[in-house]
Amino acid sequence: MQKIWTNSGDSHFLEPDDLWTTRLPKALADLTPKSEKDPDGEYETVSVDGQTFRRKLPTSAAVEFLAETRKAVGIRDAKARLIDLDEEGVWGEVIFPSLGMWSSTFRTPELLKACMRASNEWALEELVPVSERYVVTAQVSTLLVEDAISEIEWAAENGFKAVFLPTTPHPSAPDWHDPAWEPFWDAAERARMVLAVHIGTDPVDVTSGGAGVVYRGPGGAVMNYAETTFSGQRFAMKLVASGALDRHPDLRVLISEGGATWIPFLGDRMLEGYRQHSMVVRPKLKRDPKETLMTQVYASFQHDETAVAAHDAMGYKNVMFGSDYPHMEGTFGHTQDTLKQLFDGASDATRLRITQGAFFELFPHVPAVPSSGV
């Protein structure tokens, strides 16, 4: 079959390990994330901003898989990355940070603000100029609203089109549905900045025994993986129910790597709650919550067999494919096989909407896929 070209609403880049330590004053650099492996190689101790926790290292099978994944030449090389994208049939892509995934775990405002600016400046130097196909996400401090506003305004002035936000801020900061964030939503809407939210970015609970560990025992690995998706759904729910998206109809949200079928279900559930419990619902909304969720929130998936049905049968048109390059959960090495399976029997209109249309709606500045491919 002819190659199916797609855009991706989810990918990652590995910044230099010393990005923050070389760009920050020593007093702040000493607080950035560091890890020390146990002699037996089974666990590591991670310290970040004065907090310490332990986590289990990958099994030998996972290590072997990761070794294969690292053959992705563009994982650390922005120019070579285009080789991988062309091979996989991926045109434009949203690029999330790797170091920045720690942002919701920081608790010192000065440190987080400095790290986010260092990451943004580095991205402007090393990633953004390489290709118009890259939608590099800016990063902002979420500990203080005023810091987030100043950084998103700086990012917009410097050409960023999307801003990465963790699914949940640090517990010391107001949560996303808090009115304190209203000036930030104002700033994001004025800048026409897409709010790009990646699942699995809740603050690390240092008492739980490691990052991403909620369940132990039988089924723990699968349950912990599934658990990471729910915080993205909560982010969308908070912005809809609090009226943030209702007040800012031009604001767009992308929930990456969390699947797509949950959007219609959550919309139904919120609409029912809004209608059946209207006597206690605050604030009152101009539009029903399902309409807002279905039109202002975009959702990326990689393997979900139900995603096409969400578009065709459930009327959710903001479904977007994401390759999750080059993560273990992604499609690197088999993107074309995945796409051909997903769209077997689907109409051309459906395929083009999910692989290209929704992406270009959010990021119209990205050049179109050449009609002849690459």
UniProtKB/TrEMBL annotation:
Keywords: Lyase. It holds the Pfam family Amidohydro_2. Residues 117-350 form the Amidohydrolase-related domain. Signal peptide: none annotated. Gene3D superfamilies: Metal-dependent hydrolases. This is Amidohydrolase family protein. It comes from Rhodococcus baikonurensis.
